Description:
It contains 18 helices and 88 strands.
Amino acid sequence: MALISAWPLVSPxxxxxxxxxxxxxxxxGSVFLFDIEGSAAVSAQEAxxxxxxxxxxxxxxWVPFAEGCQEGFYLTSSGKCSPCNCNGNSNRCLDxxxxxxxxxxxxxxxxxxxxxxxxxxDVVSGVPTFCQPCPCPLPALANFAVSCxxxxxxxxxxxxxxxxxxxxxxxxPGYYGNPLLIGSTxxxxxxxxxxxxxxxxxxxxxxxGQCRNCLRHTTGFKxxxxxPGFxxxxxxxxxxxxCNCGGRMCxxxxxECLADSPxxxxxxxxxxxxxxxxxxxxxxxxxxxxxxxxxxxxTLLSISTGVAAQKRLNDLNITTTHLQAGMSQKKNHSEFWTxxxxxxxxxxxxxxxxxxxxxxxxxxxxxxxxLVQKETMKTNNRAVQLVQQLSDMRDNIQEISSKMKxxxxxxELSPEEIxxxxxxxxxxxxxIKRPKPFTNERQLADEEENxxxxxxxxxxxxxxxxxxxxxxxxDVLEQLSEQDVKLSDLQEALGQALxxxxxxxxxxxxxxxxxxxxxxxxxxxxxxxxxxxxxxQSATTILAGPxxxxxxxxxxxxxxxxxxxxxxxxxxxxxxxxxxxxxxDADLVEKAMQHAHNLRRLADELDRNLYGVDTNGLVQRAIxxxxxxxxxxxxxxxxDKAASVALNTTNRVNDAAVGIxxxxxxxxxxxxxxxxxxxxxxxTAADSTALTVADTSxxxxxxxxxxxxxxxxxMRAITKMQxxxxxxxxxxxxxxxxxxxxxxxxxxxxxxxxxxMDENVRLWSQNxxxxxxxxxAYNSAVHSAxxxxxxLSEVFPQLLDKLRxxxxxxxxxxxxxxxxxxxxxxxxxRSVASKVQVSMMFEGQxxxxxxxxxxxxxxxxxxxxxxxxxxxxxxxQLAASPDRFILYLGSKDAKNYIGLAIxxxxxxxxxxxxxxxxxxxxxxxxxxxxxxxxxxxxxxxxGRHGKMFLTLPSVSSTxxxxxxxxxxxxxxxSLLNLEPExxxxxxxxxxxxxxxxxxxxxPGFIGCLELATLNDDVISLYNFKHIYNIDTTxxxxxxxxxLAFTPSRxxxxxxxxxGYAVAxxxxxxxxxxxxxxxxxxxxxxxxxxxxxxMVNGSxxxxxxxxxxxxxxxxxxxxxxxxxxxxxxxxxxxINDAKFHEISIIYHNSKKMxxxxxxxxxxxxxNERTAxxxxxxxxxxxxxxxxxxxxxxxxxxxxxxxxxxxxFQFQKKDFNLLEEPGTLGISYGCPExxxxxxxxxxxxxxxxxxxxxxxxFSEFEGGFNFQTLQPNGLLFYYSEGSxxxxxxxxxxxxxxxxxxxxxxxxxxNYNDGKPHFVTTSVTPERYExxxxxxxxxKKNPAKDRAGKxxxxxxxxxxxxxxxxxxxxNFTGCISNAYFTRLDREVEVEDFQxxxxxxxxxxxxxxxxxxxxALLHKKGKNSSKAKGNRNKKVGRDKDKISQPSPxxxxxxxxxxxxxxxxxxxxxxxxxxxxxxxxxxxANSRQEFDxxxxxxxxxxxxxxxxxxxxxxxxxxxxxxxxxxxxxxxFVAHGRLIFVFxxxxxxxxxxxxxxxxxxxxxxxxFTRGKNIGRLIIDGLRVLEEPFRxxxxxxxxxxxxxxxxxxxxxxVKNIQINSVxxxxxxxxxxxxxxxxITSASQTFSVTPCFEGPSEAGTYFSSEGxxxxxxxxxxxxxxxxxxxEIRPRSSSGILLHGHSVNGEYLNMHMKNGQVTVxxxxxxxxxxxxxxxxxxxxxxxxxxxxxxxxxNVVQLDVDSEVNHVVGPLNPKAxxxxxxxxxxxxxxxxxxxxxxTRSSFIGCIRNFMIDEKPVSFSKAxxxxxxxxxxxxxxx
Length: 1827
């Protein structure tokens, strides 16, 4: 009660205390804070003080009674105030989360860190400090972009639907307007629906909107009314109809004829003419003009001619004068005003700029004003609240005062009592103010706070888990759907397997029944055999009766017994051989069957693994596939061994068969002799008993009948054997086994049949002595025996043929094909494994031996490797021993290597080039400070220079930390010399038996590693040879974090040219519709590659890149054939190593549109046909598709190499790596793979760049080169008259520095192999090093040191446009580097060179020197001797070499001379000219035909001939429907080609077979053919162009055609080879010099010629046809005129090693033979030189073992050993040379003959070389250069 009574006194005190506390709360963090910024009620000084007090609040201070934090801070969950992180763009953020609100300066995002759509920021430090409207095209005033972004330093706009252009500066197709004009927008074209319906958009002027090409007889700005002469509703009904007014106009709405239409004048005879609108408009204008003239006439007539009129005219004249003066003043004022206006315009521009500045300042002031206004409103609101509170307080005070008075009156308190009450209240107030220890409450509050924080953390963790789980739902659902599909497939596969099992059971039942039947047949055969044996025994008993025979017959019988004893011996030998044949090892067959089964199983397993590999994560499959390599290699080795054993066995069978055939022939002859002798004894057998002989004959005939029955059964067995065809490798092996057993059984049966015959003959010899001879019966018996022997001789050859079939049907071929298939699968699997972008976990004891994929020899001069690394820092082993091994790539003996390790807390790059180690430690970033994420390491080595890069990700932003460290090997070597068989690549550790070099001998790595690239190739740890102590199930790979450098890997795909992606059933994502669209972005430096391909039978769609431009061809079953759409105008080059967006639009099923980078390239119409495809291949396709029927329509079958992204069908995205069937592609776009470090030069090309540094002061550079040419300019640089060049000179490398030359000692660098050259120029010395072989000289020009040019100087690779002493280079240059001022030493990227002339920056077609001729099975090889490079082949055997064309003969080579010879080795020849003819098909073939050949083909060629007929040029398609030819007929030149079904023929009037040189140009254009002769006579023939359907295929023939070609289109006389010389062949202005094949072509020799055959120094020979052979007796005569004292003249060789060889050696002629016994020879040496430039006659005569040699009547002979078994063999005869494989080591010369041969005769029969079976090499038939 006392407290209540005291309350009226306490309340005022509490109020004032509260006010006092609020005034001091600003320094204590109270909630009662006032926003003083912008408040007019607070002075500036006070505002500064209060603001300082607000800033003085300690971050994280606890506010016990606070309801919130200051502006600029937010309240965390722990109750602390933390500053807002709004990047300076807001002062407010939400409590608890810190999310910013009210972002200023056009920013947005949770922390005001982004620009909203339509704005772009100046990104300087990661966050935009100010966002401006997108300048699309004008900021703020005309912004028509949805959003914008920066790319390559430029702003790129994402325009709204109606706008287009990089900055939305123009209207999109189908819209009009001027976006650059402020206030203007793009509106949709309105053509009233009367525009072209084939267009996607209505066609109107893009600025005015006026419609173009109004259709349906409409006109007007919007095609809104009918055209003149038509009427109707143009907008709605669209039924404009022609007026029916006889040519007059009609009403445009109703069609009613107009009455005032001009009528034809009456009274004339002119007929009524229907005129168009122009005539009627003209007549209307004339009518109006006539009316105007009439009015003017009436006005003039009404003018008065009096004094008043004269005065008026004078006034007008004076007025005109004044006006003229005024106008001149006006003109002057106008000019003055113009100047003033210009000045005003300038001032206005200044004012506008100032206005813009003021506008910007105004905007800023406005924003500040808005902020002040906002704060003022807040202050005003608070003031209102304060006033309200003060009003409430006043009311409370008044109420308290009234209550005090009331209670005072009611209680009747005296003033003393009131004072007492007040003192009590004050004491109570003091008690309240006195602090009390709320310890328990505080503890409870703290516990609740901690519990609340823990609960909040649990809630946040739960929320994060919920979000993570929610993000995984879609993936889980997708994986479940995939598993469902796989289960369905598995169910189908199980169903198929069940069907197969049932079929197998049925087949087993059939086989069991068949086995039973055969067993029964076997029993029957056994019974029949027993019966035959019984009958033979009966015959033996019956034939025991005869007792006598004459003495002569006894003598004959003794001879017969001897003969058949030999038969018996042969029988035993045959049985032994058949026994060997029967030992066709069953175990071997079992093993071979098992190997075949295992091979098939592993092939299936590989196939499944191949298509099941998922580079997104199915790592175990890649490991399983890789583990199969060792097993497959082992099985292949075992299969090879089994095949070798089978081959040996087959060879034994073949030898046995040959022996059987020989013995049968021999015994057949003996039997015939026996038969003749027996028939001769008929005269002495007249006294024999007829009955006994007849009975004996009957018995013999019965026996023969039984034998014939057995022979019939044997024939049936043989027929069955012949009918059997193998299906699978296992069945083949089983059939071989069965057929061998049958062959043995049949042979035994024959043996059993011959044994009784032998016994019978012996019985005959005994019994026939006792009876008299009956001539007829005995003759019949003898003939029957002869027939039996004859039939037996027929059976054995059939058996031998069957044995040969068994040999041919051996499983070797099938095993080979299986092995080839397995090797293909292995290659594909390794390609897939190389792209598995998943890491491996290493635990210190693990190791992987990686297959480096590329040839390690490519790493000699340049090595680059990148990998990802993540350390397992929490591993205690790593803490105990931090130094760790990472990788080693080098030789097994640790002499040449590169390596990576962690040593002393630094990443260390180590390499050794055969001398001392080079260590490059990255000490700028210790390993212990690396983040726990994947980092990128890249190591490089260029020659002696090494470099290491480290990229560390940043978790908080997109920034990255990059570090670099360099080093150099000071030793002499600059090459990493590794041999493939001696190189190893270990990652993470090494096996226990491998010894690392000391610098890398460290414990194994602990953590995760992932390989990325090796040089230009993608590489993976999963493409391994061996793994050690790695189990991915227990040590799974590390998960990759989405860091700064990883997103780029996920948005693009890398194609290496061997793989492809496939999207099957593409209509599951979108449907083919009226507008079908494909989109894809590509990036590549290559020239050619397949981008998209769809195939359905013979229908196809292909998008390719050809020579850097797009090439689209498709055929949907069109009646006119394929349609071609290519970038013929070269609008968009694709191969510039930049991304290009390609769009293909198929509109209305009849129009194909090609768009590149949103720019229309070309479109083409076709027949209306829908796309008939379901699957699409991207970047390549399987080989069976590329080589199918569509291959002729593809520009090439080269897979795409580069990067692709954004593939869409109907604007629907596809993840190519997740598509089943995708093979051999990977994520990411490695920059190294897009660089052009290699360039190919064709002899006319070069590339150039420049730098501001003198190469004469101090210079170091190097590069790889590869060539087959002995001469060429590699590098060129000049300063005035000083030249620095590196060139090839006759196979040597030469450095020329201002006249000082350094030359390599070796001259064999044109061997087609890569070589590395380095050059160093210092003030003291010049150095040249080729493959680590150094040459050096002193620098004589020391005063030039230190100088540098004033401007950039060009340098050239591969040649120069300037006139130099060296020709341009032909070959490859790669991995070039040299010191530059503007950057570090690194490999030159030729793609960045500004000048590139005819150089290919991808691929290197240089090969090793080709073999002279293909060699097959060691027989009939046509490889020549010495330095013979050019060979010519015969078509029917296709024996020719893929040579690059005949080399030109230089003058110095022509003058080479044998010291013993009068004539030079090579006659003088015309350069670049070649002689054709001599054979019917002499020619050159060229494989490369340009793809624009069908559009334009212009050839130029020079010719010289005396012939009246012959083919000069021919090319056609496979069916020779399309063709083009130039030939000579009756001395006239005829150019003929087809245009569709029409044949165009252009013929010259004059004859040109006059033996003079003539230039001929023949061209086939799009619609005209042209023949130009000697630049004077031009013959033309136009035709209807069908270029798109006119396609031809390689090869292109010059000088002749292959047999059977051109006869369909050209007369037969002109089909044969051109007989004469051709030179300087050019196609479209470019020389063609590299023929793929040549046949009987020689250089075109100058000077007179004569009859004979010339064998050139380039090598060659002639193989005679089969009508000529050298047997045991022959005579060969011929004449020679040699140009070399040594060479092979004639050679014959047989299969059994016998040979005959005639050759010259230093002028001595030798004939050497081997007749199967031994070698023997004879020689003749003339007194005068055989090489004196005259003709010499040589004759060789052989008669068995006697050989005579006659040279110009000098005779010698030899008698060799006699071979009684010698036989004639018809083997080929070689003239002038012989293949290497046929030569024996005993011959004294192995080189080909050089010179002429004529009058060649064998056995007095002339030999025509023009009819030879083969002409190989540079051999000129029937034409020989005169002496």
